């Protein structure tokens, strides 16, 4: 065995020499993009419309995929007008699918770069980029006796993943879901079938149809009197989640509520912001006019620098989170947690709080 | 050639400081327009070139497995030469400039790309992007001018050793990739003293280069020949020729960029406190284009648009032809010379200069014009050579 492995490794090193300076995978990628364990990709096996504005993508992840936990999400990378953009999407399929496929369900946000691309332009057979699943919005190992899910809009997705994975292990499940209209409810018919079969209690709220407006904690308390006794998972717009968190905290049961947010806290408008250099741990307040390179250096961060005018790319560092603005043309670059977007600190200033790996 | 500061009639004497800043503003606008319109088409372009290059390289190497047969040798060697040129020029050089960083594809990114060349990309990026593109044609700062080993300017003092420089230049052309590796390592400077030789940074870079060269040599002269069995020696020859062709070609293209007649050089002191407009102007005057077909542009990695490249080094190379007419128009409106010509003419012009400067200065150039050390605004500084003495403020 060891001999074969040694021979194998030796043969591989020869193959690497054949293709140096690129790696053999760069050639193999052309014919078998899913075989590359170093670069995780997924093939779109099917595109299924859910509502007028949302689709479910059935994905076949390539080598390197790790089985997910219900409730987790995956970062998906797609080239939008040539530029690779990454966004997170909750996995809506159970982890045990025998064909190894996963599904995500995307709702097109008006003006949204990635969601629009995924909903309108992605076709069967296309290759997307993928990251391994992650996320802390999970069910407990011992399933709750009484569960409550509060969701709004596309916030149903991680909960759908949980229901499809573990509903058969739960006896008392209430789902309060808010959507604009009856038709806009993602997974509407599946949820209604579950309700009809008596497997969940489904409370739908249609904000457009009725005059009741957005879902408030008080409304839920009215509909679900024993809500504080329930383990609760909530996902939806930040305002709703903020309300819920306050309500549960006021009720003294904050630990019973778990929330999943789809959007980062809003950026401060205009330029400037706190720049955090993650490696050195330095934090600098900037006014948005000075390049990050200067701010960092002034604060004593050891930074690579070159031409200091944006042409030599010696100072490039990854933006891990937050927003920066290109001082030359005003281009805004925004990174979500987990992103790794190279920026040029010498011609870039903070446009809100941001974290730079440097 | 003489630095612009020492010239009797300066090509920019007619420009006011306001003109120069206006040039900067116009160029920024041209840049912004193109940069804002980069998209899927550009992405498809570079991916297509890479796919073609890899296909060509793979099939050429495949054909060379049978290089014992002369037709296979010829076709394979020609294909591999072209593949290597494409890899270095249109692909490697431009990716390492960050032209494709906007794609945010780690496979086509300046910080990740490694090229088929003796010099490791890290080191090349430093000496090329940082030094050459920042200090373009500044005597004493820009290593690309080869002042380290050659006399590239009348103002450089002549010594008899320079008589041999046409020969050095030819040898350098043949082994150009190693020449590049050597000056990326700044071998001349770093081998000079014991202290520099022992410097851990230098030693690390030396090791990195040795490893890179090792792999490159192993690939071209051991592994691929061995794979071709009975064609072993023929494949060695084929790969050596492909490397030679690539070296001669890239050397010629690069000479055409900054050496031909009409290209200006600059004094070290003239770039202190340079404004953006002045920087642009230096790039405009310090570069020369090569005219020709689409195939010529592709094979030169669009360095045939050297002027456009020096103005906008991080603009995707497939866009240079689009901005070229605007740049040309700008040159015309501001009364500047847009230096360009077909490859043979530019190569001849560059070689003529190398040969001419291998001899001592003759005639007017033999008399060195004095220049002051410091001066006020750059625009004035650049025109100092013809300004009356009373106008120069420098003590
Ligand atoms: C952990 C996690 C899981 C997620 N799971 C899903 C999922 O399963 N399904 C899904 O559709 N989305 C999900 N999202 C949201 C998704 O990642 C994107 O944020 C969303 O698709 C918008 O991206 P975009 O590129 O289209 O919009 P962008 O181009 O980034 O934004 C365009 C505009 O829309 C606004 N905007 C962004 N997001 C929203 C939103 N959700 N609602 C309203 N306006 C918005 C922005 O502020 C901006 O003004 C999840 C997000 C996170 C963090």
Quick description:
The complex is a heterodimer of chains A (358) and B (395). With 358 residues, chain A is of the alpha/beta class.
Give structural attributes.
heterodimer, A: 358 residues, alpha/beta, Elongation Factor Tu (Ef-tu), domain 3, Rossmann fold, 4 domains, six-stranded antiparallel sheet, six-stranded mixed sheet, 8 helices, 17 strands, 32% strand, B: 395 residues, mainly alpha, 56% helix, globular, disordered C terminus, binds flavin-adenine dinucleotide
State the share of residues found in helices of chain A, binned by percent.
10-25%
The end-to-end distance of chain A, rounded to whole angstroms, is 44 Å
Q: Work out the radius of gyration of chain A.
A: 24 Å
Helix fraction of chain B, binned, reads: 55-70%
Q: What oligomeric assembly is this protein in?
A: heterodimer
Strand/helix succession of chain B: HHHHHHHHHHHHHHHH
Uncertain segments of chain B are 371-395
Lateral arrangement of strands in the main beta sheet of chain A: 4-3-6-1-2-5
In the CATH hierarchy, the third-tier topology of the largest domain in chain A is known as Rossmann fold
Q: Which structural category do the helix and sheet elements of chain A fall into?
A: alpha/beta
How many β-strands of chain B, per DSSP? 0
Number of helices of chain B: 16
Task: Point out poorly predicted stretches of chain A.
Answer: 265-270
Q: Give the termini separation of chain B.
A: 28 Å
Please tell me the CATH architecture of the largest domain in chain A by its name. 3-Layer(aba) Sandwich
Mean pLDDT of chain B: 89
What general form of chain B does the structure show? globular
Secondary structure class of chain B reads mainly alpha
Q: Given the structure, what is the number of helices of chain A? A: 8
Number of domains of chain B: 1
Describe the 3D structure:
Chain A has four domains: 2-31, no CATH class; 41-130, Translation factors (Elongation Factor Tu (Ef-tu), domain 3), CATH 2.40.30.10; 147-260, Nucleotide-binding domain of ferredoxin-NADP reductase (FNR) module (Rossmann fold); 273-356, Beta-grasp domain (Ubiquitin-like (UB roll), Roll), CATH 3.10.20. Helices cover 23% and strands 32% of the residues of chain A. Chain A has eight helices and 17 strands. The longest helix of chain A has 18 residues, at 2-19. By secondary structure, chain B is mainly alpha-helical. Chain B is built from 16 helices and no strands. Chain B has helices spanning 17-36, 40-64, 70-96, 121-132, 165-174, 176-184, 187-190, 194-198, 200-227, 232-258, 276-285, 294-299, 306-311, 320-333, 343-357, 378-382. The longest helix of chain B is centred in the middle third of the chain and has 28 residues, at 200-227. Chain B is globular and about 70 Å long. Classes of the chains: A alpha/beta (358), B mainly alpha (395). Flavin-adenine dinucleotide binds next to strand 4, strand 5 and helix 3 of chain A.
């Amino acid at each position: 065995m060891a001999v074969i492995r040694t021979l194998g490794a030796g043969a591989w090193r020869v193959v690497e020499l054949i293709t140096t300076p690129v790696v053999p995978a760069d050639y193999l990628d052309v014919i078998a993009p899913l075989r590359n364990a170093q670069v995780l990709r997924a093939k779109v096996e099917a595109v299924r419309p859910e509502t007028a504005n949302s689709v479910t993508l059935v994905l076949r992840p390539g080598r390197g995929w790790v089985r997910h936990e219900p409730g987790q999400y995956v970062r998906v990378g797609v080239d939008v007008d040539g530029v690779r953009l990454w966004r997170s999407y909750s996995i809506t399929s159970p982890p045990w699918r025998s064909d190894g496929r996963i599904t995500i369900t995307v709702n097109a946000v008006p003006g949204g770069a990635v969601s629009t691309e995924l909903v309108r332009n992605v076709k069967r057979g296309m290759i997307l980029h993928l990251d391994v699943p992650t996320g802390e919005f999970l069910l407990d190992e011992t399933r709750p006796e009484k569960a409550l899910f509060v969701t709004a809009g596309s916030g149903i997705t991680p909960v759908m993943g949980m229901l499809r994975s573990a509903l058969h292990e739960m006896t008392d499940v209430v789902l309060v879901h808010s959507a604009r209209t009856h038709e806009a409810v993602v997974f509407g018919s599946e949820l209604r079938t579950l309700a009809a079969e008596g497997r969940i209690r489904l409370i739908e709220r249609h904000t457009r149809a009725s005059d009741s407006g957005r879902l408030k904690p008080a409304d839920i308390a009215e509909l679900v009197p024993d809500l504080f006794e329930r383990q609760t998972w909530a996902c939806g717009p930040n305002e709703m989640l903020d309300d819920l968190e306050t309500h549960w905290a006021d009720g003294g049961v904050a630990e019973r509520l778990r929330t999943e947010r789809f959007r980062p806290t809003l950026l401060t408008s205009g330029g400037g912001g706190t720049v955090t250099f993650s490696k050195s741990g330095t934090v600098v307040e900037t006014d948005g006019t000075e390049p990050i390179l200067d701010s960092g250096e002034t604060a004593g961060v050891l930074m690579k620098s070159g031409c200091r005018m944006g042409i030599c790319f010696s100072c490039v560092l990854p933006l891990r989170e937050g927003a920066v603005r290109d001082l030359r043309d005003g281009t805004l670059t925004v990174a979500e947690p987990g992103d790794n977007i190279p920026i040029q600190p010498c011609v870039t200033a903070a446009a809100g709080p941001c974290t730079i790996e440097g | 050639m003489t630095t612009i500061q020492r010239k009797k009639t300066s090509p920019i004497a007619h420009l006011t400081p306001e003109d120069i800043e206006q040039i900067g503003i116009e160029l920024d606008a041209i840049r912004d327009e193109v940069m804002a319109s980069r998209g899927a088409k550009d992405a498809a372009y570079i991916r297509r070139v890479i796919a073609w290059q890899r296909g060509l390289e793979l099939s050429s190497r495949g054909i060379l497995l049978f290089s014992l047969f002369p037709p296979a040798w010829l076709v394979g060697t020609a294909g591999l030469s072209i593949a290597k040129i494409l890899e270095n020029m249109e692909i490697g050089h431009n990716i390492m400039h960050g032209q494709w960083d906007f794609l945010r594809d780690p496979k086509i990114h300046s910080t990740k790309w490694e090229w088929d060349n003796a010099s490791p990309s890290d080191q090349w990026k430093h000496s090329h992007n940082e030094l050459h593109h920042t200090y373009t044609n500044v005597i004493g700062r820009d290593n690309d001018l080869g002042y380290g080993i050659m006399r590239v300017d009348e103002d450089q003092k002549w010594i008899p050793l320079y008589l041999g420089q046409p020969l050095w230049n030819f040898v350098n052309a043949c082994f150009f990739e190693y020449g590049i590796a050597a000056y990326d390592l700044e071998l001349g400077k770093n081998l000079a003293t014991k202290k520099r030789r022992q410097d851990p940074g230098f030693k690390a870079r030396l090791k990195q280069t040795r490893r890179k060269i090792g792999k490159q040599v192993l690939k071209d002269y051991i592994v691929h020949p061995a794979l071709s069995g009975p064609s072993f020696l023929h494949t060695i020859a084929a790969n050596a020729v492909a490397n030679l062709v690539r070296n001669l070609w890239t050397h010629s293209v690069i000479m055409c960029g900054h050496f031909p007649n009409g290209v200006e050089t600059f004094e070290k002191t003239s770039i202190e406190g340079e404004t953006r407009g002045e920087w642009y102007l230096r790039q405009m005057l310090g570069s020369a284009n090569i005219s020709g077909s689409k195939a010529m542009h592709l094979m030169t990695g669009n360095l045939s648009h050297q002027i456009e490249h020096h103005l906008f080094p991080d603009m995707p190379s497939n866009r240079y032809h689009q901005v070229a007419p605007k740049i040309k128009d700008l040159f015309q409106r501001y009364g500047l010379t847009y230096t360009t010509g077909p490859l043979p003419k530019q190569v001849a012009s560059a070689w003529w200069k190398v040969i001419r400067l291998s001899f001592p200065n003759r005639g007017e150039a033999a008399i060195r014009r004095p220049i002051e050390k410091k001066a006020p605004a750059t625009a004035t500084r650049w025109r100092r050579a013809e300004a009356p003495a009373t106008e120069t403020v420098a003590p």
